[in-house]
Amino acid sequence: MHAARDGMVHAARRGIAHAARSVRRAMAEDWAAFRRAPRRTVATEALAGALTAALGLVPLLLVHPDRPVLAVVEALYAAFLMPLRRHRPVLAVLGTGPLLVGPNVWTLAVVPLIVSAATRRIAPSRRAWHAVGAACAVIVVLTAAGSLVRPGAWVEELAGNGLSAVLLVLLPALAGILLGRRRPLVSLLRERNAYLEQARSLTAAAARMEERTRIAGEMHDLLGHRLSLISVHAGALELAAARQAPPLAGRAELLRTTAGTAMEELREILGVLRREDAEPESEGHRGTREDITALVAESRQAGVTVELDWSVPDTADPSAPTRHSTHRVVREGLTNVLKHASGAPTRVAVRGTHREIEVSVTNEAPCERRHPQAGNRSGLAGLEERIALLGGSFTAGPLPDGGFRLIAVLPARPNGITLALPPPATGEAAAGGPGASWGGAAPAGARAPLSGEVLTWPRVLGAGCASALVILPTVTFLIVLLTTAALR
């Protein structure tokens, strides 16, 4: 007999010790989650608790309840339950039972909010229904216990509390579970869209790379062969001119070196086409003063009278795209002068500040009337497009005296524009798990999406519409109940 009693006492002590450890562990986890939560989430939860307390306490100043102390305790208890709906949703649902039985009718307004918000975060839905059933059992037990303490029409009180449980617990729980199913569907739909968008981008990148490789091969086969022939014949012409016509040897050497330079630039361009993110090796010095001076010197060797006006301060540090565009503008202008106005005096001006670079190539009317080479203005159109992408301006046109001028104004540091997709929310946070309990962000997932049958907008919208229809009787009941309490 004594042994059995001692065993029961020992088992009770172990149970109490285990419960105490569980409570301490839960409090430690709650405190750690609270410290990890963003300040905005903490402020929101504090405000929600304060409003809940005010909703339960302020009406008591106007409508005095039968048991004021218990009504005040119930209001503070409701304020305590409000933050639990996010981190401990099962406990929040179970804790709504005393609110339906207590004397403070004003706290009933927050019961649907707590139940719907808590059941939305409980997964799976079977577990949520278990919590709701336990809350209803708590209501029945507390109602029966109250009838023992205060004898009266306990059948009517049980019926009223049962109606309140249906309208304030069961229906909000149904709405919360529907919304809880809707949230992961929306998250998975976003993930599916991001996944398909990424697949489309990769497919387009592969197609571009294949086409660029094909173009690079054709350019190498056609232009490379032609430039090699020009370089070989120019070398032979240079040797012949050195023996037979020494004054023409310089022009022949220029032709040979120009063909060699064109072949090197062609190889650089082919390397850019064959590699996705490659840049030409000579990009680093293009657009500098030495580079522009070299362009002007080459044009002088070709017979163009060119003058260079460089007034960019040494402290200015334009970006690589700006310098490269400066090189392109000067080269295109001098090439046009050589093709259409050979021999005309030309002036290249490069002026700049720390904010912008202005490049102009101006040539006078040619001294001799000659038939210029035909052109299709594709070079000027390409320059205009390139400069527009950098955020600059470009103008080109004839002058009243018969000359021609092209001017480009480039920003020294153009602002790059990048497009990025927002990372989809996945994992426990998408389903309302512990990772999202205090508003923490979940990492973006990379798994393949579910089937298209699951991720459809009708199902997603249907869950939201059904939950709205379910909550309408709850709102109506609350309005009637609170209005009756205010008029009493």
Question: Could you characterize the architecture of this molecule?
Answer:
- The chain is of the alpha+beta class and 488 residues long.
- The protein has helices spanning 2-36, 39-62, 68-87, 89-95, 97-101, 111-119, 125-149, 154-244, 249-274, 289-301, 320-340, 378-389, 457-487, and strands spanning 306-311, 346-352, 356-363, 393-398, 404-411.
- A five-stranded mixed sheet has the order 1-2-3-5-4, covered by helices on one side.
- Helix 2 packs antiparallel against helix 3, helix 3 (68-87) packs parallel to helix 6 (111-119) and helix 7 runs antiparallel to helix 8.
- It is elongated and about 130 Å long.
Q: How can the largest sheet be summarized? A: 5 strands, mixed
Share of helix, binned: 55-70%
The 3D shape can be described as: elongated
* Strand order in space, largest sheet: 1-2-3-5-4
Oligomer: single chain
- Report, as a whole number of angstroms, the end-to-end distance: 59 Å
**Number of beta strands:** 5
pLDDT < 50 runs, ≥5 residues? 277-281, 416-455
Structural class by SSE content: alpha+beta
Element string (H = helix, E = strand): HHHHHHHHHHEHEEHEEH
Number of helices: 13
Q: What's the average pLDDT?
A: 75
- Rg, nearest Å: 41 Å
Strand content is 5-15%
